[in-house]
Amino acid sequence: MGEGLELSLHAFVNVASRNRATDYESGTVANLNFAVGQRIGRWQLGLAGYHARQLDDDRQHGARVEPDGRRYRATALGPVLAYDLPRAAGSLKFKALAPLSTRNSLAANTAYVVWSRSL
């Protein structure tokens, strides 16, 4: 791995299906995950986060869920630290995210430890 700045963006959409037991359907959510990191030798240190926004209302029994359609929105940001392990053809990453803003969601701190390996 070389040294330098690394930028990453990942955009995706979540489409929920209707819960038949409760006749409840959550709205479609657009997500943008992002990261910026600096590589120094085998290490990478950076900042990661996401922003997600619900595009349409939750519905139950065909009607909008009141008072506001229960539209979800969340933004989080935090550090990421990774270490490349060339002999194992993989890397180990730690990421912690803290909520900056939330609506109709839990405001929870999250932490991840990820082992990834080339196939």
TrEMBL record:
Xref: InterPro entries: FApF
Superkingdom field: Bacteria
Protein name: Transporter
Species the sequence originates in: Pseudomonas citronellolis
